[in-house]
């Protein structure tokens, strides 16, 4: 149970984008990731390598930055060429450190991987879902909640990958999600067949998902759920009604339970705005004809009182007003929270990729935390900044607080040479010669150079000599 003054406590504690993000990505989770990442490095003979929470927060920040400042390859963020160089990234973390974290990053100990019949297919990423699901419930739940499926894009080979034709993301991992009506995620459960961690009710997959998410979020009397025809059935609405939970959803024709309603074929012949209503116990079924017919079932709402909807009539070539049932109006207003959440996550999705199958899910978790932090700050403080503004503020704060400006000797383009700045810029007696190695970087442009300055003993291209000594 949450404290009754949780909202006021959050308001006192948090003000910046970084503060709200840290509600979800806290020290407890960072310590877990740092421990497991270091352990994985030890298991792969990197005995002197380790990481800490500052490096991980910097790593998260660079991942978020890649969502709105996209480059074709991640090494380009550290490239010194003026068309791709990113000073914020290169001054926060060395490229080799970023590559090492990306290589060894882990959330669970592989030696504990269960190889039995009840093996968790998402063992490697399960700590992320367990942590975020517990942290996302920071405030009391509003009255209206939305349940739907969400997709995390993935195009590799994995037995958990799904294909959903009608989704904006058609290939990837499927998540069962419950959100508020404005798109704040409360709980997400990855779908993995029979191993999905949701209770079995015997009423079908849709009822299993809804009731499982209800239990996970402790949804009780006074709340109302909205979902689509993948989940809706008369039996499910009756079970929810017995628990005092309101529910409304679109209904497939073969799930009407014999209710005396016109078929889709019959409704297709009727005029727009035609309404038919039937009852099955405490559940009300309403069929309404708009451009096409749609059937909704609810244990709270009915067709009355009717309202109106303005739409364009091709027959009359003008806007006309047609009657609209109350249940349709309520459904349109409250349904779509998961779609709003998906839209926000996809707007600035982490662009940097990895060969590890679970990394898209980790990237999704980082994006989801940023989106929830943005929604939460809007609710608590009333600040109406855009998601892009929030994400940029968050990234700059993360890299400023946790990034390191330490550089390896000889890598900074602004470091003076052995001759000193005064001697280097006196304009006298400088000329190129073949260097001892061709792996040094030119002090002017940063690219590999086989030449050096005889005066300064520093790697410089012949064509860069004049600019370097100017």
Structural write-up:
InterPro entries: PGBD, PiggyBac_TE-derived. This is PiggyBac transposable element-derived protein 3. GO terms for molecular function: sequence-specific DNA binding. With about 475 residues, this protein is of the alpha+beta class. Among the domains are: about 5-120 and about 350-400, no CATH class; about 250-325, no CATH class; about 420-470, no CATH class. It has helices at about 5-15, 15-20, 25-45, 55-70, 85-90, 95-105, 125-135, 205-215, 235-240, 265-270, 325-335, 335-345, 360-380, 385-400, 420-425, 465-470; strands at about 145-155, 160-165, 170-180, 185-190, 225, 245-250, 275-280, 285-290, 295-300, 305-315, 320-325, 430-435, 440, 450, 450-455. α4 (about 55-70) packs antiparallel against α14 and α12 (about 335-345) crosses α13.
Q: How many beta-strand segments?
A: 15
Low-confidence stretches: 407-420
Described by the principal axes of the CA atoms, the overall outline is elongated
Mean pLDDT: 88
Radius of gyration (Å): 29 Å
Class derived from helix and strand content: alpha+beta
Biggest pleated sheet = 9 strands, mixed
State the separation between the terminal residues, measured CA to CA.
68 Å
What helical percentage do the residues reach?
25-40%
Count of separate DSSP helical elements: 16
Instruction: Tell me the strand percentage band.
Output: 15-25%
Oligomer: single chain
GO molecular function, one term: sequence-specific DNA binding
Organism: Amphibalanus amphitrite
Protein name: PiggyBac transposable element-derived protein 3
Pfam families: DDE_Tnp_1_7
